[in-house]
UniProtKB/TrEMBL annotation:
Cleaved signal peptide residues: 1-38
Taxonomic classification: Bacteria, Bacillati, Actinomycetota, Actinomycetes, Kitasatosporales
CDD domains from the UniProt entry: E_set_GO_C
Keyword Glycoprotein: no
Residue numbers spanned by region Disordered: 789-813
Keyword annotations: Signal
Native source species: Streptomyces incanus
Residue ranges of domain Galactose oxidase-like Early set in the record: 606-701
Biased composition range(s): Basic and acidic residues: 789-801
Annotated protein name in UniProt: Galactose oxidase-like domain-containing protein
Domain Glyoxal oxidase N-terminal residue range list: 260-586
Key word Signal present: yes
Matching InterPro entries: Gal_Oxase/kelch_b-propeller, Gal_Oxidase_central_sf, Glyoxal_oxidase_N, GO-like_E_set, Ig-like_fold, Ig_E-set
Pfam short name (any one): GO-like_E_set
Length: 813
């Protein structure tokens, strides 16, 4: 069973604090060193001038939690006569820190978009000390920003620590910082410095066409995907596992023809892989060792008369990228067709939702133990007996709790507000407010925005296959560092064109898209692409880049291929984005594969990581790389494991940089000490220059001791999302299942085969007559549709000849 952190109770009057991690940063801009004469922005940097409350002028006591502490102005100084000593003699939780006073008189003025070199001299008798930043937002006031660097333990020798801040966020006018002590022992500090970083060199010239440099470009690859893949996993050898199972084909299911393929981006080839079971609409996640855990899948298709829906089996497999083979594990406790799959900070995997073997909804949480390499029995897994729906997006927060974003598949959302925080330790669910149109977020996308340290989630688009309205343009953003987090409205998704069956036309009104894909890019932005206006119909052609810093969309080049239901989009190690699939309601499949080259690939020569000392990383490490020229930042991006607009494990983790002043191409990376921020596994390491141009990724393997938690790893842990005020529920009554209608997929099974989806609800603009419905079906290439059984609920077989939308049916109206 996974070990979890015990959270410190909230205390009245305590600073709003957040879970942070030793050695975190964002956007560290490395340029030419500042001249020695650069102005120090710190007032009283050596503590020489006395102030009030026993503290030096322009310095204040800060901290929180249950601990015994002291603040001492000591004569044991690096220079001058005074230094500041902060000591903890007992600690259950929290920290103590001497901060620059958060006032207009003392806190340094900063400029949004700029970066600052910070430095200090220190001695420490504890390994639990880190450089911590706060920022003053002109609207929201003072708030925690990030931890930049964990200080090595130096009990006897004065040591200099330097680090560069992220770019100052918009709306920030001042910052405050100091050293947090969050373990027993002391940190003595002196001679603080803060200098603005010099401007970067001018932008390089465009190396492509003007359009490529502004919008990027798409290429449709010459070789088609040989399988009807709806699951895409980027493997740590750079290849891509594409899982089809039966590919939503009842004929292939009956024949026992289940497929996967491994695509190699290096040479564009596909290797079809024997697949032991129907992994159509399974769940999948990459384990700590790089193998892929594939859970559940399709035990059976709906019955022809529509009385039985899809069924999920309990089977589970691991795929080994080295041998390209599947191996069976023990069974799950329940069937989970369309399950969630979230890796936790100790390498365990938790799964919720989906359909059981009898096609009812699963209320069982299943837990894969990394230590035992098996699914644990139900009596060892906390249960709330909640039904989370299908493919619920469950995102791991920095303190080990799970955030359900509200993105899901098929029909209405869960009851209540539509989003929630699940605390496994307490076994409680707390509703989170603010998600707009919560029952029209079917096949929306949700991502933890870059950098993961900011703990902001973006949810975009969606619809509802039951009522089948026009999909929406909504985006909602939540900051999980707030004490009482709530979604707020983001900018609408830009509109493109929509093809109703007679060629693309411009979207109008509030038309948006469902089946949308969202991909984290190495420049810290998010690509959103693909989608459709209605249930498995009316593809939307629109692609944009979302900038988390400005919270704006920039429309870019558009994928020429339709990418709706059962499509995927994911980042390749070379910085391009690959898209596959599309499975309209007529049962056809798009085997064409597209690759997008973002604008950053047309901004001059790419930086290169010329050496990587070690690809095996542990939490809290300092790792050295060399690059061929100065870089702006480095980050870890977890490789994709995506299906149905959903990849809750996708994350972008910034790494703090320390640079040798005599050799800017030698860079030390401070690895986060928090496994809940960056769960164990293989990551793509990108080095990015000041213009957002990334290197080709190197693969690194991040891991720690068994059952490692944030507390075990010595992470600097603050409470955040500490006081959500939504309705709290604990475990409900033990039950077997949630009733789910057989038509949960939005398809009326009275017509055609199981892989054909005649909608139970047609788009609003389609009249409720046989003629109007049949015209729409013809425009969307449904072809001949046999009627299954005697029922004709949509009145498409007026002459009762067993064929829907025949000539006689249309003439009769």
């Amino acid at each position: 069973m996974r070990a979890h952190r015990t959270r410190t109770p909230v205390r009245a009057g305590r600073r709003t604090a957040l879970l942070a991690v030793g050695a975190l940063t964002s956007g560290l801009l490395l340029t030419a060193p500042q001249p020695a004469s650069a102005a120090n922005l710190i007032t009283n940097p050596g503590f020489e001038t006395a102030g009030a409350d026993g503290m030096p002028h322009c310095w204040e006591k800060s901290g929180w939690g249950d601990n015994d502490f002291s603040f001492t102005t000591t004569s044991d100084a690096h220079s001058g006569d005074k230094a500041m000593k902060v000591e903890l003699t007992r600690r259950t939780g929290g920290d103590r820190k001497a901060l620059i006073t958060e006032s207009a008189e003392c806190a340094p003025v900063v400029t949004p978009g700029k970066q600052y070199d910070l430095g200090l001299w220190y001695r420490t008798t504890t390994p639990d000390a880190s450089l911590t930043l706060f920022r003053h937002d002109e609207t929201a006031g003072w708030q925690y920003w990030t931890d930049l660097k964990t200080l090595d333990m130096r009990p006897a020798v004065w040591t200099e620590a330097t680090v560069r801040t992220p770019q100052v966020p918009a709306g920030t006018d001042r910052i405050s910082w100091g050293v947090s002590v969050y373990g027993t022992g002391a940190a003595t500090t002196d001679d603080y410095t803060m200098e603005q970083v010099a401007e970067p060199v001018p932008d390089p010239g465009c190396t492509g066409t003007a359009r490529e440099c502004a919008d990027g470009t798409w290429e449709v690859l010459p070789t088609q995907n040989p399988v009807r893949s709806m699951h895409s996993v980027v493997l740590h050898n750079g290849k891509v596992l594409l899982i089809a199972g039966s590919g939503n084909s009842e004929e292939l299911f009956e024949a026992g023809t289940f497929t996967s393929a491994v695509y190699d981006p290096e040479d564009g080839t596909y290797e079809v892989v024997p697949t032991p079971d129907d992994m159509f609409c399974a769940g999948h996640v990459q384990l700590q060792d790089g193998r892929v855990l594939v859970m559940s899948g399709n035990k059976g298709y709906p019955s022809a008369d529509g009385t039985i829906g899809y069924q999920g089996y309990k089977d589970s497999y691991v795929f080994d990228p080295e041998t390209e083979t599947y191996t069976r594990t023990n069974d799950m406790n329940d069937g989970h067709w369309y399950p969630s799959a979230t890796i936790l900070g100790n390498g365990d995997v938790i799964s919720f939702g989906g359909l059981r073997e009898d096609s009812t909804g699963s209320v069982t949480a299943d837990l894969w133990s990394d230590a035992e390499q098996r699914w644990l029995p139900m009596n060892r897994v906390n249960q709330t007996w909640s039904y989370w729906g299908l493919y619920p997006s469950m995102i791991l927060m920095q303190d080990g709790r799970l955030f359900y974003s509200g993105s899901h598949v098929f029909g209405n959302n869960i009851p209540g507000t539509g989003s929630a925080i699940y605390d496994y330790d307490a076994n409680t669910v707390t509703e989170v407010p603010g998600l707009r149109n919560k029952d029209e977020r079917d096949q929306s996308a949700s991502v933890l925005l870059p950098p993961a340290q900011d703990q902001k989630v973006l949810t975009l688009g969606g619809g509802n296959i039951d009522s089948n309205p026009d999909a929406n343009r909504l985006t909602d953003i939540i900051d999980l560092k707030e004490a009482n987090p709530s979604y707020v409205a983001g900018p609408p998704i830009p509109q493109g064109t929509v093809d109703h069956g007679d060629g693309p036309v411009q979207q109008t009104g509030d038309q948006g898209k469902m089946y949308v894909s969202a991909v984290l890019l190495p420049d810290g932005k998010v690509l959103e692409t693909g989608g459709a206006l209605h249930n498995r119909a009316d593809p939307v052609f629109e692609t944009s880049v979302f900038d988390p810093a400005s919270e704006t969309f920039d429309p870019v080049a558009v994928d020429p291929q339709a990418r709706g239901y059962h499509s995927s989009a994911f980042l390749l190690p070379d910085g391009r984005v690959m898209t596959t699939g599309d499975n309209p309601g007529n049962g056809s499949w798009n085997h064409n594969v597209s690759v997008y080259s973002p604008p950053y690939l047309f901004k001059g020569e790419r930086p290169a990581i010329t050496s990587l000392i070690d690809s095996e990383w542990t939490y809290g490490d300092t790792q050295r790389i060399t690059v061929d020229r100065p870089i702006a930042k480095a980050e870890l991006i977890r490789p994709a494991a995506v299906t149905h607009s959903s990849d809750p494990n996708q994350r972008f983790v910034d790494l703090p940089l320390s640079v040798d002043g005599n050799d800017e191409n030698t860079v030390d990376l401070n690895v986060t000490s928090n496994p809940d921020l960056a769960p164990p596994g293989w990551y793509m390491l990108f080095a990015v220059d000041a213009h957002g141009v990334p290197s080709v990724a190197e693969w690194v393997h991040l891991r720690g001791p068994a059952a490692l938690t944030a507390q075990d790893a010595g992470a600097h842990v603050h409470d955040f999302a500490e006081a959500p005020q939504g309705k709290v529920t604990g475990p409900g009554r033990k039950r077997a299942a949630e009733p789910v209608p057989p038509a949960v997929s939005g398809c009326d099974r009275h017509y055609g085969s199981a892989n054909v989806c005649v909608p139970t609800a047609f788009p609003a603009e389609v009249g409720a007559t046989a003629a109007a419905r049949c015209t729409w079906l013809k425009q969307n290439d449904y072809g001949t549709l046999e009627v299954n059984g005697k029922d004709d609920p949509l009145r498409l077989d007026k002459n009762r000849d067993g064929v829907a939308c025949g000539k006689g049916d249309v003439r009769r109206g």
